[in-house]
Write a structure and sequence with these properties.
single chain; about 475 residues; alpha/beta; Rossmann fold; Arc Repressor Mutant, subunit A; Trna Endonuclease, Chain: A, domain 1; five-stranded mixed β-sheet; 23 helices; 12 strands; about 45% helix; globular; ATP binding; ATP-binding; nucleotide-binding; Restrct_endonuc-II-like
Amino acid sequence: MSSTSSFIGREQELASLREELDRERPSLLIVYGRRRVGKSTLLARATADRDAIYYQATQVLGSMNLKLLKEEVARVLDAPDPILDGVEHWEALLTYIGRLASERSGLTLVLDEFPYLCETVDALPSIVQKVFDQLSQRGIPFNLILCGSQIAFMEELLGERNPLRGRQTYELDLPPLTYREASRFFPNWSPEERLAAYGVFGGMPYYLQLCEPSRSLRENIEDVVLQSGAPLHNEAFNVLRAELTSPTRYATILEAIGSGCTTTGDILGRVRDITSASALAPYIAKLEALRLIRITRSLDASPKARNRRYYIADPYLAFWYRFGLPNSSALATGYASEVYDHAIQPYFDSYMGEIFEWIAHQFVASYGRDILPAASRETGKIWGANYDIDVVAKLLDETVVFGECKWWNSEVGANVLRDLERDTRETSYGGDAPETHYLVVSKSGFTPELDAMQGEQANLHLISPEVLLG
């Protein structure tokens, strides 16, 4: 496991959480995001120096969770209390904790994996609402944090018909780390290796912490992912099994997408037991809701256009379904090194081409203001019969950006820019823009000719791995 600090990135989220917890008012905080994204670590860091009760719920009977939370409250009190011992219901326990808050200003209660509690106590959101309203009416400074990995459930907590609707004072949908944040786990690697590591392990802090930056990328791939018994060897299936009762067909769809089937027709051609787009649609919708795939439409197409492309959203899952699952038999029998030599290394640059586009999208959306006239309003791709442009963005000042990405082992030349300029003339996107900028993003640098053109064209930006990483 990496000796690098276990808390990388999240500075902005940590600061905003602490600011909310410092407000000295009744606060209801809703925090959610995918498993392994670092919610619990973030909350533990935010409450580390506070008077806090932190409870990690488990999938057991509601009475057992009640008992375990009572034990945690008793541990924090560090003194026996007959009243607490006599508590037998959730409303009574939350009311008791609220009474503690009146004596211990700013007390924070964290209910992590809140959906597990609600599985056996259906009325718990209503109970929480009732107790929180009582504390709010009395103006007692009390922080209640509800955290969960079941994204649909957590979003529903904020839905119109939920009793907690409108009561949250803070909401955090915690995303994976960006490629730039993830690269900080490998401070001594070359820029190209750091980007490649993101292409394998993605932005989940848990996955990245399993890596050892003193070893090579290949060694980490073999030790953390490929070898039978490696910590992430079964992670892809575990991700599905944690969310779905019957994950097999979803895994087959993900394998199809991972192998390059980015359209409905491509997927149907690969997944033989799904015979129509209408039959495929609910599976796609579920995978999108779980944030396991990204659905992209061309930015110059009608919002109702059916011409969409599908990509696996998590680079680790993309890597596994591209290279791991198809070679699972060889991996199970101990041939991780041979799988790497023959099934991964020859095709890795091709795989990274798609990841590199996604990195470029993140760069424009999150960091592009460093080089562009304004921040991005929307970022995506456009394609048509005669053109396919990797990166497209419209900035807040209406400037339009077009970009081409090349994960090549050779320098990119002026011909790539000319092809990009030709393709932009095929689309109506940004036709009335006051200004157009061009990006050429290259793994291996640029020819002297293209370098010279950047000096002559203020709207041309050549983006190297060093620029991407900042």
